[in-house]
Amino acid sequence: MMAVTLKQIADSAGVSTATVSRFMNADPSLSITQKTREKIIKAIEDLGYDKQPRAISIPRNIALLDTTEPTDLVQDEYFDTVRESVAEFSRTHNLTLTTFTTLKDILKNAKKVDGFIGIGPRTLTDRELTRLHSALPHGVFIDTNPAPHLFDSVQPDLQQTIVDAIDILTRSGKKKIAFIGGDDASPDTHHRKELRSRTFIEYATSCGLDITNLVYDKGPFCVETGKTLTEQLIANHKEAMPDAIIVAADSLAVGVLQSLAAAHIAVPHDVAVVSINNMPIAQYMSVPLTTYDIDIHELTNMAVTLLTQAISRKRERTAHAHIGTKLVVRSSFVPERI
Q1: What is the pLDDT of residues 23-46, one digit of tens each?
Q2: Cβ proximity of 5 and 35 under 8 Å
Q3: Is 5 helix (H, G, I), strand (E, B) or coil?
Q4: Can you give the pLDDT at residue 245?
Q5: Structural domains of the chain sorted by starting position, each given as residue range(s) with its CATH number in brackets
Q6: What is the C-alpha to C-alpha distance for residues 103 and 318, in angstroms, rounded to an integer?
Q7: Which distant-in-sequence residues (6+ apart) come within 8 Å of 280 by Cβ?
Q8: What would the pLDDT profile of 253-284 be if each residue is shown by its tens digit?
Q9: Residue 337: left (phi > 0), alpha (psi -120 to 50), or beta?
């Protein structure tokens, strides 16, 4: 097959060769209408230019739907890193990124973008998600999977992480393991426990562990929730504390360690603590935190890749990816063997 030339693309799109060249090189000074941009992209795809041995990344406009709300410094830092990583990989993939914080705004601008990446708590209802899909059928959610039948998603493999945490604690001789987590923020799933809580209950029970009154998972994922839930745990088990606590996120773990210290419960001597996220603060706590690392850059890279593939191929079926986590061992729990 003969290679497709810029002139062929220009002729098909009804523009100059120079315009096509500047478009493909993402020239920031190029000013063209949305209609012209769509004509160039259609010509590129119809002629198969992106299938040539020397493939290029077609410039596209994408939206970042950011539904995060300030909670506490630890949780905010996590989403700050996600935002920065999305921006970084968007540049790498030759994408123009525009941020929207409400459904109303992204719907108003839907015709100006080719797809979206969603981050933040699951605050959209089923009806809102359906409206979003009608306007923008190509979208990827990071960290959550609010509408698996409508949109792609990329998530850390939290289910396997909880299983691994229970296994590594029991192999180290821990027999009474508690869990501290948070609520699922979705208005349509308030009656269901969050994935980490569900997995802990199901797998711990299957392992024959007695977790009666050892699951505390009500409240947002923030430091204050971690403090409050740990105070409840201590009050209910002051005569026989668990010998280990699995915490759903580092933002909670900060509060967990604070409450344990206030009650003069030594970590890890009296109780081991294992968390999830590996935020920078984890290594600087009074007791450095053993936690499962989530590779945010891998999550966002995969999200951008899924989105660009879906747009280019006009993929109609959704795709979902889970990225594994890795245990980072610090003082709050040192396993006997990994």
Answers
A1: 776 666 677 787 887 788 888 878
A2: no
A3: coil
A4: 98
A5: 1-39 (no CATH), 60-156+295-323 (3.40.50.2300), 158-293 (3.40.50.2300)
A6: 21
A7: 77
A8: 999 999 999 999 999 999 999 999 999 889 98
A9: beta
